[in-house]
Amino acid sequence: MLRTHTCGELRINDVNKTVTLTGWVQRLRDKGSLLWIDLRDRYGITQLFLEEGKSDAALMISARKLGREFVVRVTGIVAERLSKNDKIPTGAIEIKVDRIEVLNESKLPPFTIEDETDGGDDLRMTYRYLDLRRAPVRESLQLRHKMAQQTRIYLDSLNFIEVETPVLIKSTPEGARDFVVPSRIHHGEFYALPQSPQTFKQLLMVSGFDRYYQIVKCFRDEDLRADRQPEFTQIDCEMAFITQEDILSTFEGLVKHLFKSVKGIDIPPLPHMTYSDAMKFYGSDKPDTRFDMKFVELNDVIKGKGFQVFDGAELVVGISASGCAEYTRKQLDELTEFVKRPQIGAKGLVYIQCKADGSFKSSVDKFYSADDLKRVAEKMNAQPGDLVLILSGETNATRKQLNELRLLMGEKLGLRDKNKFSALWVLDFPLLEWNEETKRYHAMHHPFTSPKREDLSLLDTDPGKVRANAYDMVINGTEVGGGSIRIHDRPTQQLMFSKLGFTEEEAKKQFGFLMEAFEFGAPPHGGIAFGFDRLCSLFGGADSIRDFIAFPKNNAGRDMMIDTPSTISEEQLKELGIQVRP
Amino acid sequence: MLRTHTCGELRINDVNKTVTLTGWVQRLRDKGSLLWIDLRDRYGITQLFLEEGKSDAALMISARKLGREFVVRVTGIVAERLSKNDKIPTGAIEIKVDRIEVLNESKLPPFTIEDETDGGDDLRMTYRYLDLRRAPVRESLQLRHKMAQQTRIYLDSLNFIEVETPVLIKSTPEGARDFVVPSRIHHGEFYALPQSPQTFKQLLMVSGFDRYYQIVKCFRDEDLRADRQPEFTQIDCEMAFITQEDILSTFEGLVKHLFKSVKGIDIPPLPHMTYSDAMKFYGSDKPDTRFDMKFVELNDVIKGKGFQVFDGAELVVGISASGCAEYTRKQLDELTEFVKRPQIGAKGLVYIQCKADGSFKSSVDKFYSADDLKRVAEKMNAQPGDLVLILSGETNATRKQLNELRLLMGEKLGLRDKNKFSALWVLDFPLLEWNEETKRYHAMHHPFTSPKREDLSLLDTDPGKVRANAYDMVINGTEVGGGSIRIHDRPTQQLMFSKLGFTEEEAKKQFGFLMEAFEFGAPPHGGIAFGFDRLCSLFGGADSIRDFIAFPKNNAGRDMMIDTPSTISEEQLKELGIQVRP
Fold it and tell me: Which of A46, A331, B26, B230 has the fewest CB atoms nearer than 10 Å to its CB?
């Protein structure tokens, strides 16, 4: 090694050692006769020290010429600092420099390499290799590394086998769009990149692998919304000879292990919540349970008082925001504006202020007496000082609107602390989901998910009511993982494909191999996949997954640094047997 | 879990326990009143036992109906076997069955699920999920899992950070062909799949990540030779602030760790051999050093005796095959035929039989006296009983031919034992390689490899002579890994591109980001990549990598099981802005 030590390891008991360090010049402080340099590497920062008169004159001159981000190799003696810095682990010492070798110079970086940088998103992405030098970004990727390590340690300990599944697979129109790869050898034919290794992991169960995992890249050619990446990473797992409870306890164990080993946090056992309860009490299948503020349905206490909006509504439902009774007119108007934004789509908002003196003030005072309001407040379990917020309308839409309002109020009340974690399982998802565009049912999870046996009879009469053996893990209002117990017999799988509108021919062309595999002794099996990028950002307390990916693409799917996608030569296209459409 | 135990864990001290097992019916032996069933899962085989009269009559009937590969769940009591089987860990016990539940039936598999199968390659690949049930294939993938685990344990312990690099990158014409991925959002533009994460790992060094690794899928669209896969896996590593020696010792450590932890073998320190010595003594840059049989150059003792073939040859070189002096005429003719095969291309083969009585017999007796032959034998250090085999011609071609002959003789003499391992480093590779087709120099390793400083002056005068800071690890005649110390400054990188025939514009378009990165404080760095599939097959003692990949493609790049590549819809093509050429 060109160094004897890293910039993060020297301590007071190393004093008087002769050491050689390598790293980047973070900062240079020149106080006339005294010169300090902060030398940085991945492991930390060590202070270098030179003194006019004591240090060699030529050395002083060359030290003064060092610019930010120069790469140097420095030899010197470890000395105790006069004024110690207890903010960094090396803060008790500095290096009295004897020799500086410039390993490489640096132009002035286009943005500052500091925790808070002045670089905008595009600039940071174009020079991602410089952005990655910043401590917060490096630490995010170190966290990711640790998450991957600990995931493997846990799964290895439970006899999971890591198996690599292929990246060049087959295009299947179900679900999101595939990225495709033209075959040069077979003109007119294409591979596709996997949206997940779903069928392969199921086949591994048919093969008797019993417990499989993989931390694996997946691909989805979707119109990119904020914080979606065309390539993303999953912790992908599957188990055979299990019940749903086995999957839930095994992967609850994984997440507990990660919290403990990576963050030193013991999280409580994960509550189980049905999808239908999640929708009823939170208006979302990924409830943020860091705070309570559950929905209370008010139809029975609020209808029939002549207020047409409520009387004509399918559902009247409220939340109670603790300590917000004294919201000003302006604040209340802002809440109304919020729910009326087109993305949310409520027609209006009714509020009841539960005053400290026990009185009530509401936006519907002319329809409701003080007693009426009191009855509502009681039903809401609202205390003096609370603010009750009520929406109404078609059930599903109203729940979704109130979910947004609940999250906003949680935010306003500081109840969504990024360093607090609340995890749960959401269970019993619907098997099918009606799609207004295509006018048919789609698989809510995917077509391999098994229906609950007791709901099978509804498949013909009321398909939307059939529940699946499907589950999501939700942390802080984010779905971090989801999975299901799979179908493992051909007749059920065939039935499922036909309910999803596949012709027999289509099903056979795309998934014939899987259905055939089910005829050769397929065991009961199920699994789960975690969104690894998202899980890392959640652990890192960040909103965006961007800094937990070393080289992310922007919202147009472009890598700004290497400038791709890009054109390829006509010769290359010819070889592949394709051409760009005019 | 549907089971209380696996099929691999019950022992004599479990006798009398009531247990539930799950697995596949491997075999059924029906001896009239007695019935044995071998139940198989990933963990082993357990014998089930039923007895007419003692077992329930209905149970006997249903047990007799079980077919091979049926999936069952069995409950019973562990009992000591009368005749124990010491070949399997569960051989001391059997299960007296009380209950059998068929979890799934199985059609008759298209080939037998045994260690030696009757299935041909195509059939095995079409039903890969059944092939994967066979113990040798499953064990190969378990070995791979262990190799990956131990690789990570070793590198994690040395502070390497695992960083995922992107899969959707940019096409670069240097090297093999890229697979490309049309962009739907940017019509006419393409991503490419990485042949290696080379530039990204170098950028991570520029970013200060210091030590990087990744077990990563790479892609190469080459005409597939036997045992090449379009997608393959590398252990990819890079280190900063190092010398070549640091890389060699770190990764010698990795391979030692793998041998020790996976196979329980202590391998000796790896010898270092220069490329030029490897070519001179073995005729190959990947010498199989499990056996000696080194080349001996004979120009000085064999020329000038009137044998035109040798006198006119640039090089006359031989090997001595121990104990082969008594090869018959037929055997000697076969060796001659072997070297004259068009793939090898020698014009002929000269032999000298060193008889046990001290006499010599050669195929060139009319040109060489007994004394002449004795002198050759002495130079060869051939002993009585040995067979000297001599080739001649242009130096490089002759060495390559003799390499093939040496390997064949090693094979014949049983010196290439798959359970013996001989590893070494080959160093000082040439930087450039002349390509007859393109009539220009190509990078032997890749364009980012640094030339040896002391050879830099040859770059203009004799480019083929410039040596690189490049190294390969070779085990048993197979290159398992290779790497180099990289260029880390813009001027040298630019010089290199220009020597490789890149115009300035081309270099900038393809690698501008890397050259720019070198101007912002790039540290000295270098790295290595191991071919993981090959390394696993070597550890597994197999010739082919096929069974160390769960779902491999055939030699035409086709996945026989899922049947891909395949056509995609016109609609999909339209969306991607491409069309298939007529």
Answer: A331
Note whether A169 contacts B576, CB cutoff 8 Å.
no
**B350 and B431 fall within a common domain:** no
Q: Which residue among A368, A395, A416 closes a domain?
A: A416
Q: Are A275 and A285 in contact (CB under 8 A)?
A: yes
* Alpha carbons A71 and B207: distance in angstroms, whole number: 11
Query: What residues of chain B, 119 to 138, have a C-beta less than 8 Å from chain A?
Result: 127-130, 132-133, 138
Is B495 in CB contact (< 8 Å) with chain A? no
Asked if the model's pLDDT at residue B55 lies above 90, the reply is: no
Last residue of a domain, one of B416, B441, B463: B416
B29 lies in the same domain as B146: no
CATH code, A150: 3.30.930.10
Strand bridging mode B296-297 / B315-321: antiparallel
DSSP A451: B
CB-nearest to B566 from A189, A203, A523 is A189
Backbone angles phi, psi at A102, to 5 degrees: -80, 115
Contact B152 A152 (CB under 8 A): yes
| ipTM of the complex model | 0.95
- Identify the CA nearest to A192 among candidates A163, A229, A167: A167
Domain CATH code at residue A48: 2.40.50.140
Contact across the interface for A129 and B517, Cβ inside 8 Å = yes
Is any Cβ of chain B less than 8 angstroms from the Cβ of A535?
no
Considering the domain architecture, whether residues B143 and B267 belong to the same structural domain is answered as yes
Contact criterion met (CB < 8 Å) for A208 and B24: yes
What the block records as the tokens of A514 is 């899987």
Q: What is the CATH number for A330?
A: 3.30.1360.30
pLDDT at B174 over 90: no
Other residues' Cβ atoms within 10 Å of the Cβ of residue B177: 18
Do B146 and B49 reside in the same domain of the chain? no
| A389 and A297, same domain (yes or no) | yes
Q: Is residue B356 part of a domain?
A: yes
Residue A559 domain-assigned (yes or no): no
Q: Report, in this order, helix, strand and coil percent for chain B, each rounded to 5.
A: 30, 25, 40
Tokens 């009143």 sit at which residue?
A: B33
Element (H, E) at B151: helix B135-157
| Nearest Cα residue in chain A from B187 | A580
State the residue range of the domain holding A176.
Answer: 139-273+424-548
Does A428 share its domain with A387? no
Q: Is B568 on the interface with A (CB under 8 A)?
A: yes
pLDDT tens by residue, B483-523: 999 999 999 999 999 999 899 998 998 899 999 999 999 99
- Which positions in chain A touch B181 (Cβ < 8 Å)? 179-181, 193, 565
B165 and B91, same structural domain?
Answer: no
Residue B19 within a domain? yes
- Residue A174 confidence class, pLDDT cut points 50, 70, 90: low
A550 near B CB under 8 A: yes
Question: Rounded distance, CA B401 to CA B317, Å?
Answer: 10
Average pLDDT over residues A529-541: 97
Q: Quick check: A459 contacting B, CB < 8 Å?
A: no
- Residues with Cβ < 8 Å from A366, sequence gap 6 or more? none
Do A437 and A409 belong to one domain?
no
C-beta atoms of A138 and B191 within 8 A: no
Total domain count for chain B? Answer: 3
Closest partner CB to B171 (pick from A180, A241, A568): A568
In A, minimum Cα distance to B241 occurs at A2
In a domain, A114, yes or no: no
Its pTM surpasses 0.80 = yes
Measured in angstroms, the CA of B161 and the nearest CA of chain A are apart by 6
Which residues of chain B are within 8 Å of residue A513 when distances are taken between CB atoms?
561-563
Structure tokens at B319: 């090997």
With contacts defined as CB-CB under 8 Å, which chain A residues touch B2?
Answer: 241-243, 524
- Residues within 8 A of A (CB atoms), B 496-525 only: 513, 517-524
